[in-house]
Amino acid sequence: MTTGQAGDVLAHPGVRAWLTIDSRQRVPALVEVVKGLKGRRTVWRLAGAGPGGSAVIAKRCPRATAALERQVYERVLPRLPVSAPGYYGYLEDGDFAWIFLEDVGRERIAFTDDAQRRLAGRWLGTLHAAAVGVVAPGDLPDRGLAHYRRLLAAGRASVEAGRHNPALTPAQRRVVEAVLGWLDAVEGEWGALEQFCGGLPETLVHGDFRPRNLLVLGGRTKMRLCPIDWELAGWGLVAPDLAPLRGPALEPQVDPAAYVSVARQRWPDADLAGFREQVTAGSVLRWLAAVEWAAQSLAHPSLVKPVGYLNEYVPELLLALAGAPWRRGPRR
């Protein structure tokens, strides 16, 4: 859906918010929907509204989410030597808020491309290493083990409640029981997980580092990675940022050598073996977050989507836990 006539453009809430920030801003020639959530349009492209007639992304989201993203774009990323979308402003709108960013296109990263995997490895290693000593841990949400322990408890409670939903078919119930068993297993190994993670690096993390949030600009010789959607960012373990949520089991998303070469500047003991251990540990933690998200809908009458997601997760959950490094003895 697009809005192109002058009157329609000026009536658009994103345009009104854009002009409220500064009435001297360019009026967009066109407003296009970029993304919607559950029937509500939440992200728009304001064509021609930015510097030099470039496009601007207008994102509307709950104030708490917007406040964290604003902090990252406005006060954190500019202090770090990493590429990022240009930040143009923020405006509160009742229980919601608007964030305005540079339009960095629609090309998502391809982790099947070696050059892009190396780019992502260098970018992520630079983010993690450079944030230490620049960003104060207390200024960001906790994304350490305590955060994932809360996700485990919340996910388990939702799955436990969902198993009693009378709308479940026998096949769906078997899926729910399998996920509950996996959560029980993780809970039983939590002490070993804590021991393994003791002393692992903690720093600024993206929290949802996956292709849909990783946009690439430029040609192969001047590629620029621009991660978006920082609503799960915080201070915590780097391992979940390294681990995939989809793709070959326990294979790192980013190029290991590229990441380690940069991370070693902050953590001299960083090596490829340790990197791969963190990938396998991070995979378990990422799946805890995925299960908690999907399980929230198990109490609803319509169970096709949440059980469908969990059914897709089960093989990945089992592989992640089977490869957990704490099952192989003490960390090197």
Explained architecture:
This protein has 332 residues and is α+β, with helices and mostly antiparallel strands. Helices cover 44% and strands 17% of the residues. The chain contains eleven helices and eleven strands. Strands 1-2-3-4-6-5 form a six-stranded antiparallel β-sheet, sandwiched between helices. Strand 9 and strand 10 form a beta hairpin. Helix 5 runs antiparallel to helix 6 and helix 5 packs parallel to helix 10. The radius of gyration is 21 Å and the shape is globular.
Can you give me a brief rundown of this structure?
With 332 residues, the protein is α+β, with helices and mostly antiparallel strands. The chain is built from 11 helices and 11 strands. The radius of gyration is 21 Å and the shape is globular.
Offer a few descriptive terms.
332 residues, alpha+beta, six-stranded antiparallel sheet, three-stranded mixed sheet, 11 helices
Spell out the blueprint of helices and strands.
Layout: E1 2-3, H1 6-11, H2 13-21, E2 30-37, E3 40-47, E4 56-62, H3 63-76, E5 87-93, E6 96-102, H4 114-131, E7 142-143, H5 145-162, H6 170-188, H7 190-197, E8 202-205, E9 214-217, E10 224-227, E11 234-237, H8 239-242, H9 256-263, H10 272-295, H11 304-322
Helix pairs in contact: 4-9, 5-6, 5-10, 6-11, 10-11
